[in-house]
């Protein structure tokens, strides 16, 4: 009996429409990301939270697997804190570029979760007293998110955590919300 019920449940799940993509379709989206820069230097905790606008373009190779490219541009800078104290230094993201493999897991016909991993290159600038310093880096990136369809199967909203760069001396991560359109 348990086997029959399990088979029936599995057949229902497999045959029901689910949120993810259809093989061969593409998607584009925009995200507002609140980035977090954290670094420890000689025992001092340095933090800044600039905002970033991220554009996404992806293509489904199968119903549950896609490749995605991203371009991000800084929207606003943020005042840097050292051990929780404000400073006269600001930090901003100049740009980020990334390429990722994305696995999508439908939860219901309108909700899915996803995980992504890939490579990011980014550049940021710190400014203080009329001086500035720019630095760039690249490395492995990973993240998880959720997606909900609204209005139609083509439009969805996303909520995501992404670790863009996680080096031994610093980390750049972001929480973002956005919209996608499948075509």
Automatic annotation (TrEMBL):
Stretches of the chain forming a coiled coil according to its record: none
Domain Outer membrane protein beta-barrel: 7-183
Keyword line: Signal
Signal peptide per UniProt: 1-20
Protein name as it appears in the record: Outer membrane insertion C-terminal signal
Organismal lineage: Bacteria, Pseudomonadati, Pseudomonadota, Gammaproteobacteria, Oceanospirillales
């Amino acid at each position: 009996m348990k086997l029959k019920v399990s088979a029936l449940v599995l057949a229902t799940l497999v045959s029901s429409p689910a949120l993810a993509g259809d093989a061969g379709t593409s998607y584009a989206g925009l995200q507002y990301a609140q980035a977090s820069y954290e670094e420890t230097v000689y025992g001092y905790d340095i933090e800044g939270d600039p905002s970033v606008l991220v554009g996404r373009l992806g293509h489904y190779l199968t119903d549950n697997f896609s490749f995605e490219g991203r371009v991000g541009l800084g929207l606003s800078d943020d005042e840097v804190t050292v051990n929780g104290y404000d400073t006269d230094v600001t930090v901003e993201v100049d740009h980020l570029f990334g390429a990722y493999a994305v696995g999508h897991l439908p939860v219901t016909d309108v909700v899915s979760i996803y995980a992504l991993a890939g490579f990011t290159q980014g550049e940021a600038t710190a400014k203080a007293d009329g001086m500035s310093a720019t630095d760039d880096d690249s490395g492995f990136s990973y993240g998880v998110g959720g997606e909900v369809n609204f209005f139609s199967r083509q439009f969805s909203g996303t909520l995501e955590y992404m670790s863009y760069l996680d080096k031994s001396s610093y980390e750049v991560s972001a929480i973002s919300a956005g919209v996608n359109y499948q075509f």
